[in-house]
User: Fold these one by one.
Assistant:
Number 1:
Amino acid sequence: MSNALLSMATSVRQMVIQQVQSIPEELFDVQPDPFNNTIRWNVGHIAFVNEYFLSLGLSIDSRLPDHYAQLFKPGTQPDDWSDIPPTKEELLQNLTRQLSSYSDIDPSVFDKQMDPPIDLGPLKLETFGEVFNFATVHESMHFSSISSLLKVLQYQKV
């Protein structure tokens, strides 16, 4: 099961990177109605939240700049930004770095019990494997948001 978790997370991240690479940066900050965030926010949010979830079960030092929390933590939105957000290239570097770190994960860590369990609304994540799996599901949800934003922007011919 642990190899399946790593394999799926790797595949999802590769798809995200491929899609982000294909999007012109001039579309990264366009926020069409009724969306409350942008492509740049979704990409940064993926990187920020992924690093947070990985830190719950792995001994990692975050290599994301400190201001990422103010830009990309849950509940933030571009309308509230006072810091200059990262470029497309910086975001891609962070996504790629995180992807390469997956090969360093010892699959036995997925059995590690979370003490205390992580409560996310109705979800109770009791092992790091469940946390890691949720991180992949979360990334997939934001990948879908990026795809939806891109479709709307292409339809509007922004």
Number 2:
Amino acid sequence: MGGFDFDHWKHLAERDPAGFFLARDEALRDCIARHPDQAHLLSALQARIDATRALAGTPLHASRALMGMMHEQLRELGDRLVELQQETDALRTLMLGRSSP
């Protein structure tokens, strides 16, 4: 996320909330457009994030819900890593068995 200026976005949100959300939406569209091969997935993820925020009721509840979503994804990624390590170990064992005289 090179070039992200937190203070700029913070001040914009404080001074002009409507302008902040317009700029936010534009920045998100630009980011998604830079990844056309993933645009459908990124758009769906952003829609899920926006719906979670809208339904949460408060910023604190939204933060907790979004952190839960991230935790879930990290757990799934960890599970996939374990599976990949097991497959790699099995292949390594198979290859070592083939190379033995």
Number 3:
Amino acid sequence: MRASKLNELQSQLHSQGITFAYCGCITENILTGIGSALKNKLESEDVDTRTTRSIFAVFVEQMQNIIRYSARQASAEQDKPLKNADDHSRYGILTIGQVGDDFIIHSGNLIVAADVPGIRARLTDLQNKSPEELKIAYKSQLRNLQELEEGAGVGFMEIARRTSRPIEFEFEEVDDEHTFFAIKATI
């Protein structure tokens, strides 16, 4: 990529208030490294502790969503849908920005198209809950955690209860088997 194109990309991100962007392979180690850098950045900007905790929690949940559910793996040749569910080299994008007093965390990744109805229903339900209803549902789900499979909706609920506005999400069909899923959280 030419310097002019990188400069243009940087300018576009800056004009949208994006102060952090990552696109590529996402693993637990990468999540840990980026998380450490994010905490340091927020501390250096004197973001209050409650907001920092919320930003960090949503960041972690969105990154873990990519690690667990992305249907795309990082490849030297190109991005390819996963053939093996045990492949831990998942691919996605995450941005963090600030517009006024709001912090915006946006992530996206390729998912299996058959998963769209379940994800849409879960997120729509969370969008329609009041903060008090979210708190009650979250506590109930945590009490029943032993009965749940790993990742059984706790992540989306954690995001929803930390946001200042309802979660926003969108699906874009890629082909018959895959859909690009984007989720936006405002803190």
